[in-house]
Design a protein that fits this description.
The structure holds 2 protein chains of 2 kinds. By secondary structure, chain A is mainly beta. Chain A has no helices and 11 strands. In chain A, the strands form 2 sheets. In chain A, strands 2, 4, 5, 9, 10 and 11 form a 6-stranded mixed beta sheet that branches. Chain A has a 5-stranded antiparallel beta sheet with strand order 1-3-8-7-6, with no helix packed on it. The mean pLDDT of chain B is 94. The chains are: A mainly beta, B mainly beta.
Chain lengths: 113, 113
């Protein structure tokens, strides 16, 4: 059973456009929500993360929006570039155990020049 | 890249054979994790370690065992490989404490025929 649901599965965006990836969760114990970026043949790399005490976090062109009441969070990539073409994973963890992460199923983003 | 080396990077083996994957870190991080990545499932936690000789099961631990005899090495063993264990395996490391990021290696692609 997928604890974090992610959509869409794939996304095609024109260069300069906005890419939006959505995730939802049920476990209210989750309190850390990272996003990972993965290029082919490489491991996932941490992109940006948020805690539920804030509704938005921005780092450069990447923004996480967080809606605690709806148990949803999303990644916005502004001014998308061909170099952003990768697979993106949302994840969630709680404070118990060893910070174990529960991942979404991934979104393959393609940015067309 | 965080100092994480996975070996081998690729392996093809036959059903019923034992397989051991190695994760080596140079960061002296306390926590280490093994994930598998499959299409449509994202990354799923197999086992994790919170110190030397201290390990615990993750979401998909059946058919896998792990060992950690020193801080820098975390081994994943498939005692008798099955075709359903064909996957890409990732090791990750993190520091203890809430919301500490996990850093991933570049994975091992394992094919079981």
């Amino acid at each position: 059973q997928q604890q974090v649901k992610q959509s869409p599965q794939s996304l095609i965006v024109q260069k300069g456009g906005i890419s939006i990836i959505n995730c939802a969760y049920e476990n209210t114990a989750f309190d850390y929500f990272p996003w990972y970026q993965q290029f082919p043949g490489k491991g996932p790399a941490l992109l940006i993360a948020i805690r539920p005490d804030v509704s938005e976090k921005k780092e450069g062109r990447f923004t996480i929006s967080f809606n605690k009441s709806a148990k949803q969070f999303s990644l916005h990539i502004m001014d998308s570039q061909p170099g952003d073409s990768a697979t993106y994973f949302c994840a969630a963890s709680d404070q118990t155990g060893a910070n174990n992460l529960f991942f979404g199923t991934g979104t393959r983003l393609t940015v067309i020049p | 890249d965080a100092g994480i080396t996975q070996s081998p990077r690729h392996k093809v083996t036959e059903t019923g054979t034992p397989v051991t994957l190695r994760c080596h870190q140079t960061e002296n991080h306390r926590y280490m994790y093994w994930y598998r990545q499959d299409p449509g499932h994202g990354l799923r936690l197999i086992h994790y370690s919170y110190g030397v000789k201290d390990t615990d099961k993750g979401e998909v631990s059946d058919g896998y065992s792990v060992s950690r005899s020193k801080t820098e090495d975390f081994l994943l063993t498939l005692e008798s490989a099955t075709s359903s264990q064909t996957s890409v395996y990732f090791c990750a490391i993190s520091e203890p404490g809430g919301n500490q990021p996990q850093h991933f290696g570049d994975g091992t692609r394992l094919s079981i025929l």
